[in-house]
Design brief:
alpha/beta, five-stranded parallel β-sheet, 14 helices, globular, Rossmann fold, 13% strand
Length: 377
């Protein structure tokens, strides 16, 4: 957007901090940057504001825009349908158009008086990788005669610390017959991933699983998912990537006991999402299962996320089994559900909405002093 001419008043990377202590330490600077952004909006008075995700800031920014009579288009909805339902009132009061990327979100918002439109998921529009299996094997020193399993532990260091050791433990029980590809997100240091994986790469004891000498770190998750026979994916956006690529996978996740118990109390799905608890009382958390309206991929959460359970759940997906065939068909259905109904693209849908509001804004919304659009990630 900057290359296209956007004037960046505040840079998102300057205020992006993870963790309680990090946020507290940088809070004065973050607040000054927020006030700087609000001041610029008051001075320039854009005709339309496009707010993208980032609810902790954007829902508050929408209040300032509402005061100025500036219509707000919100792209990529906060997950108010799962928790923090009280924020729904802010959306009802402050957002002119909610552009959602999951089909059930349109039903959720419209039933609650919000002008919402499903525009498709951007990941469902991305072309499949074009690199051949032979080229991929040569590039990453993989054995093309073996099947490969992709391990996606998450994109944040805290997630990786919790998920990767158990993934590797499960992989070690399958290592005689498969090779493993571990995409490293750009937010992570490959050296730190290698350090965490080291205990599984060295030789185990006589009665333990064999060492993972066949573990390969790669840079691109989509290519890994495309060429893997099956995958182990931490809950998050990567599960949508795996679904639209069509790779059979299992979903895993582990957090602290406190976070897990709080989440179990807080997560409540509306009637628009048919979600039933499993035998352990856990509601589904994988987005692919929420989109499908049923459990089409296994979820190993918290105590159920163990190395042996990972290996056991993967085996049917690695073989030419009915479970694998059914999951591939179910994932194709999810990919279809994530396509925009118009046959266009999600970004084009948002752009068309902006242009329509600009053309009709004089009649529908209070006039503003200029013809500018503000976009906030």
């Amino acid at each position: 957007m900057a290359d296209a001419g956007q004037d960046r008043i505040v840079r998102a990377e300057d205020v992006a901090h993870m963790g309680i202590t990090e946020v507290i330490r940088h809070a004065p600077f973050i607040y000054r940057q927020y006030r700087k952004l609000v001041g610029s909006i008051k001075q320039r008075r854009p005709d339309v504001a496009v707010l993208i995700d980032f609810p902790d800031v954007n829902l508050r920014l929408a209040r300032e825009l509402k005061k100025l009579g500036i219509p707000v288009i919100y792209f990529v909805s906060p997950q108010l349908w799962a928790w923090k339902r009280k924020r729904l009132r802010w959306v009802q009061e402050r957002v002119s158009r909610m552009m959602v990327i999951f089909p059930f979100e349109q039903r959720f918002y419209r039933a609650r008086g919000v002008d919402a439109r499903f525009v498709g998921h951007p990941l469902a529009e991305v072309p499949l990788p074009t690199i051949s299996r032979e080229e991929y094997a040569a590039r990453h020193s993989l054995n093309p005669a073996k099947d490969w399993i992709a391990l996606l532990p998450g994109s944040r260091e805290k997630e990786v610390r919790a998920n990767l050791p158990i993934m590797l433990d499960g992989a070690s029980w399958l290592s005689r017959h498969y090779e493993f590809i571990l995409p490293v997100a750009t937010t992570l240091e490959p050296s730190r991933i290698k350090s965490q994986a080291k205990p599984w790469i060295v030789e185990y004891g006589h009665h333990s699983p064999p060492a993972l000498s066949n573990l390969h770190l790669v840079p691109d998750a989509r290519e890994a998912l495309y060429h893997a026979r099956a995958s182990v994916v931490a809950s998050g956006t990567a599960t949508v990537q795996a679904a639209v690529i069509g790779n059979p996978f299992i979903v895993v996740y582990k957090v602290s006991s406190l976070t897990y118990n709080l989440a179990r109390r807080l997560i409540r799905y509306p009637t628009e999402i048919p979600a039933q608890p499993d035998a352990h009382g856990n509601l589904p958390i994988a987005m692919v299962n929420l989109i499908a309206g049923r459990r089409i991929v296994p979820e190993l959460i918290q105590q159920q996320f163990t190395g042996t359970h990972v290996a056991t759940s993967l085996r049917p997906l690695l073989a030419d089994s009915p479970q694998r065939t059914q999951m591939i068909a179910d994932l194709a259905e999810v990919r279809h559900l994530l396509q925009p109904a118009s046959g266009s693209s999600s970004i084009t849908e948002v752009c068309d909405t902006v242009e329509n509001l600009l053309h009709r804004g004089v009649a529908e919304f209070p006039p503003s002093a200029s013809n500018r659009t503000t976009a906030v990630p």
